[in-house]
UniProtKB/TrEMBL annotation:
UniProt record, GO biological process: protein quality control for misfolded or incompletely synthesized proteins
Keywords, comma-separated and alphabetical: ATP-binding, Nucleotide-binding
Superkingdom of the source species: Eukaryota
Protein name (Swiss-Prot/TrEMBL): AFG1-like ATPase
Family to which the UniProt record says this protein belongs: Belongs to the AFG1 ATPase family.
GO MF assignments: ATP binding; ATP hydrolysis activity
GO cellular component term, pick one: mitochondrion
PANTHER family referenced in this protein's UniProt entry, alphabetically: AFG1-LIKE ATPASE (PTHR12169:SF6), ATPASE N2B (PTHR12169)
UniProt xrefs under Pfam families: AFG1_ATPase
């Protein structure tokens, strides 16, 4: 099925060819709904291959105070006619239907000549945007004008193909800048592919000042091809072979076993394990207790017992392809902060496709279990539905009174689902590339 030229350049495969190869090898199951989406992504791929993004002229280097006083930043008009810019895809649907997998195939298939591209989890992207807006405000000074336009310009300069995984709006700070940011990015000729669990009309439901967010919904509906992947198949439910990545309880034998794996991963004499390697996160140092250049080891307390943030965990998981977390305790109700940080850490590992090894006091699904004697029968219908959506049986995850509110419960349930996925053989195989770097 491969053309001779492509066989010698495997990276030159198109999204459709990538997808067909995975079906033929039996890695993926044939799915007509996914085929329909991959055909759309193929169409977008073909347009992007021919697309010449508009030049983004540099901003005047130094604007005088007078010019700043007498001019406001005009919203940039599209620098080329809108119909010359390929229309991006907004792909939404239930969990586990393959949205992220399809978007990743699309991203992987972009020609090597396209250097200005970026694939990012939406949450990480917004952290980056707020950081840039903050820095831009400081740079512009008081009365310096709108910081979003120059930030959008910088982002567009860095990447004209942007892939966002798990687009969601839960935060008023995000909701208030998104329309302006997206409008500017699109007008600069940026093409986006977005995955989300929700149709644009259902974003930021019940959010504060939702009416101010409606223009953003309008923008998504008009400037994207909004498509659903409503296959009804949740591939996460399909049983997976578990490979050994979680070791419980904390016996001498388990500790020794994991120590041996760590030694095997760090046996290269030219890349020895060093204590207290320093990472810089936004100018602050973070010390990694034991690490080689690609493998890190933390005790749970060192990782989640200190007030580290999502940005810290993202940096750690970007730096190390394999991470060992030792001595994870069963977390009680009074350790909610640690539990939250652990969830944030697991999310970061999942996004960066980090390989994890964990030793813990109890089986990994029970680390959030509280001591209130709750049984799965006591699980609320709401929680049960969430578990069901994520393909987890209520017996796998013992109910926890630690998490309250929809967002927290969802994050908790998703964390459990991700730990299952990250313990699977398929995960070990798909992350293989990173660990051998
Ligand atoms: N057609 C398929 N056959 C087998 N496994 C699949 C198929 N589509 C997706 N998967 C697997 O199912 C899991 C969930 O897919 P993912 O893309 O993460 O879903 P979503 O982003 O929609 O929640 C992934 O591990 C993915 O590799
Ligand atoms: Mg996904």
């Amino acid at each position: 099925m491969l053309h001779a030229q492509q066989a010698s350049h495997p990276a030159a495969k198109t999204p459709l060819e990538h997808y067909s190869t995975l079906i033929e090898s039996g890695t993926l199951q044939q799915d007509d709904h996914q085929t329909r989406i991959i055909e759309k992504l193929q169409g977008l791929h073909d347009e992007i291959v021919k697309y010449h993004p508009p030049e983004i002229s540099p901003l005047p280097a130094q604007r005088s105070l007078v010019s700043r006083l007498f001019s406001s930043t005009p919203a940039p008009a599209p620098s080329i006619p809108l119909d010359h810019i390929p229309k991006g895809l907004y792909l939404y649907g239930d969990v586990g239907t393959g949205k992220t997998m399809l978007m990743d195939l699309f991203y992987k298939s972009l020609p090597r000549s396209i250097k200005r591209k970026r694939r990012v989890h939406f949450h990480a992207f917004m952290i980056d945007v707020h950081k840039r807006v903050h820095a831009m405000k400081a740079k512009l000074g008081a009365g310096g004008g709108d910081p979003i336009a120059p930030v959008a310009r910088d982002l567009a300069n860095e990447a004209y193909v942007l892939c966002f995984d798990e687009f969601q709006v839960t935060d008023i700070a995000d909701a208030m800048i998104l329309r302006q940011l997206f409008e500017k990015l699109l007008n600069y000729g940026v093409v986006c592919v977005v995955t989300s669990n929700r149709h644009p009309d259902d974003l930021y439901k019940n959010g504060i000042q939702r009416s101010s967010f409606l223009p953003c919904i309008d923008l998504l509906n008009t400037r994207f091809n909004v498509t659903t992947l409503n296959s009804g198949t949740d591939y996460r439910r399909i049983p997976r072979t578990l490979s050994h990545v979680y070791y419980d309880p904390l016996t001498a034998e388990n500790r020794l076993e994991v120590q041996k794996i760590f030694e095997a991963f760090t046996s290269d004499p030219s890349d020895p394990v060093v204590p207290n390697r320093k990472l810089e996160i936004w100018g602050r140092p973070l010390f990694v207790p034991e690490s080689s250049s690609a493998v890190a080891k933390f005790r749970f307390e060192e990782l989640c017992g200190k007030p580290l943030s999502a940005a810290d965990y993202i940096e750690v998981t970007k730096t190390f392809g394999t991470i060992f977390v030792l001595d994870v305790p069963k977390l009680g109700l009074n350790q909610k902060d640690k539990a939250r940080r652990f969830i944030t850490f697991v999310d970061a590992c999942y996004e960066s496709k980090t390989k994890l090894f964990i030793t813990s006091e109890v089986p990994i699904f029970q680390i959030f279990a509280d001591d209130s004697g709750k049984k799965s029968e006591d699980m609320s219908d709401h929680m049960r539905n969430i578990m069901d959506d994520l393909g987890l049986s209520s017996d796998t995850v013992v109910s926890s009174a630690m998490f309250t509110g929809d967002e927290e419960l969802f994050a908790f349930a998703r964390c459990c689902s991700r730990l299952v996925e990250m313990g699977s053989k398929q995960w070990a195989e798909t992350v293989g590339d990173r660990t051998h770097k």
